[in-house]
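Entry type: protein chain
Record version: 2
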Amino acid sequence: MGDSLVVAGKAYRSRLLVGTGKYRDFEQTRAAIEASGAEIVTVAIRRVNIGQNPGEPSLLEVLPPSRYTILPNTAGCYSAEDAVRTLRLARELLDGHALVKLEVLGDAETLFPNMPETLVAAKTLVAEGFQVMVYCSDDPILARQLEEMGCVAVMPLASLIGSGMGILNPWNLQIIIDRANVPVLVDAGIGTASDAAVAMELGCDGVLMNTAIAAAKDPVRMGRAMRLAVEAGREAWLAGRMAKKPYRASASSPATGLIGKTA
């Protein structure tokens, strides 16, 4: 697999995770996700049918679990109790599927995470055998607590969900990345390809996004752009960027042996 993203013991070629909401229809969802190259797709159980509404079209018909890892999430939950109940339902719908994305929101305007409730839900879910990827604030202490609790990945926000503002606090993200022993994936706030590349250049293990692709004028093309950006950012991080040298230039070509100039 080479340079793989490993989550809960499973390796993935793609480090781009994508959501499935806000698209025009299931066909556009399928096309954009195929273009993105994502292998993990997250599904809001409260908003998208994956079998809980018999007789209605199911997302799993266009994104089959045989091809994608379905990551049920708790979008729309504002308490630990609601989040835990939602993921228990998801496990039943997906035949015992354990990998989930936990998010407990604090208010409807900012969609900022309610961290006390998130910690409560995470503790319960881990104890019940769930493999929890958790949306959280960019607080390094809370991120460490979630890891110590047994979460398989921490997912700090770059900026508010759906805002497209990009990474507003790279310093906190860097602390989380440097200290974590589980994958760190930026979740929320990515607006365009350069935001995704910056996240990967910081050393993030991956990026999760939805609105940045779904709300683009051409979601399929944006899905492809995000795939390339994540790949480029990862390559740049692995390569190791040159040192920054403020106020000091360094010529790209040699200063000796110039045509018409003797040493």
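Comment: The chain has a mean pLDDT of 91.
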